[in-house]
């Protein structure tokens, strides 16, 4: 048995793609692991493909750590510079994490919070770096301030004493597949096609 090493950002839920890949590619299985900085593992060659959060210019934090900590996007220039391929998958909505007894928790889980409802509250962090979100959620749990981050990230880092809701009008983040050009082959393309919704009977 061969294994495709897939590293994914917190908040990404790739199980359905793994199952479809496993059933479609004989002799291969997707071996997944969550990491705060999946791009680092792709660049180092310790992962074959990463499912990466791309924040864009409206968020604190970038697509990676170290030299890439401030990189907001993986565009053509960045792909050429680092020898990468990138395929966008979907957009995430913004969310806000507040103390569990905050007035906005009276809203249903599907009802977005208006930013005006947070006026006067302390904004602790507005960004995508999982470690920083974790630290600030501990402060929110102590009934201080709020954190704005991608809603799926907040959901995955849930803390006791913290509630989260969708933030109306907040900027979205994108989730993308990223892999090295020197690792591009039929197996990787099969996984890419699976994530993009290609049917088992479809050709590339």
From TrEMBL:
<keyword id="KW-0804">Transcription</keyword>
<keyword id="KW-0805">Transcription regulation</keyword>
<keyword id="KW-0010">Activator</keyword>
<comment type="similarity">
    <text>Belongs to the LysR transcriptional regulatory family.</text>
</comment>
<dbReference type="GO" id="GO:0032993">
    <property type="term" value="C:protein-DNA complex"/>
</dbReference>
<dbReference type="GO" id="GO:0003677">
    <property type="term" value="F:DNA binding"/>
</dbReference>
<dbReference type="GO" id="GO:0003700">
    <property type="term" value="F:DNA-binding transcription factor activity"/>
</dbReference>
<protein>
    <recommendedName>
        <fullName>LysR substrate-binding domain-containing protein</fullName>
    </recommendedName>
</protein>
<keyword id="KW-0238">DNA-binding</keyword>
